[in-house]
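Session log. Operator J.P. requested a structure for one protein chain; no other inputs attached. Running the standard single-chain path with token output.
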Amino acid sequence: MDVTGQVLVLFLLILFGYAARKARIMDDAALGHFSAFVANITLPALIVVSLQRPFSRGLLGSAAATLGLSVAVYAFSFAAAAVYPSLIRAGKKERGVQRYAIIFSNVGFMGFPVVEAVLGGDALFNLAIYNIPFYFLAFSVGAWLIARDGKRPLLLTWRTFVNPSVAATLVGIALFLLSVKLPAPLHRALKLTGDATSPLSMIVIGAILARMDPRAVVGRWRNFVTTAVRLVVLPAAVYAALYALGLRGLLLALPVLVVAMPVAANATLLANLYEGDTESASAMVFISTLACVATIPAIALLFAG
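Structure written below.
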């Protein structure tokens, strides 16, 4: 199956989730449980299994380069997000979610399945490394950005930087550095659990879209502009910069694909939690997830060879 066909499979799964929610086979309670199961169980399992590689200096060098690129891209994203709300004249309540949308893409629910479909299973090792800043920042500094423009404050402590994905990454890296191979039954169990991440993630995204009112996205032009920046402008900028630096192959394709993901679904959760602009957050998740049906296959074709 070619890249377009593989990505199409993922979006068919989104349709299944959408249909399940519309048919009330999956209600809001079930959606919450599925989301928690993916975030706390299947994704950490996938991360650990992805990092199950025998130690080698070459792979360590690749991991270091990948992490360095990730830090650089996130630094660029934070800098862009600092000035972006002023450029679009966003209101005070809206600024936090607009910044979050520029910085954080949906690397958890969509990143792993899309990267695996486009770049293959071996690329998941590098993706797990690349996502380290996301795991540390999305629910800490990212949440703080939304909270400071919302009605509920957030105090950053060391606990806000710890979550199951961070723990799984640290465990996986330790096993890699020590070249420890998990016992076959445990590895198999974790792999089967991790393999559920892709289909469950896509189904959850479909159900989230089905829960949103399409009428709520109409009338706020800033949400459409942010979607275009998220899906087109930022990937193009990262591609041009990395290509000009002479990067090719995985070190070029991986950052571009991650940046090309839609707005992180966590934006809605955090906006609701800290009483920020939930409507804008939901709208941007909705619009960008629908629009990426066209943009991700187009970008994936750049790396199909």
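Operator note: The chain has one domain: 3-299.
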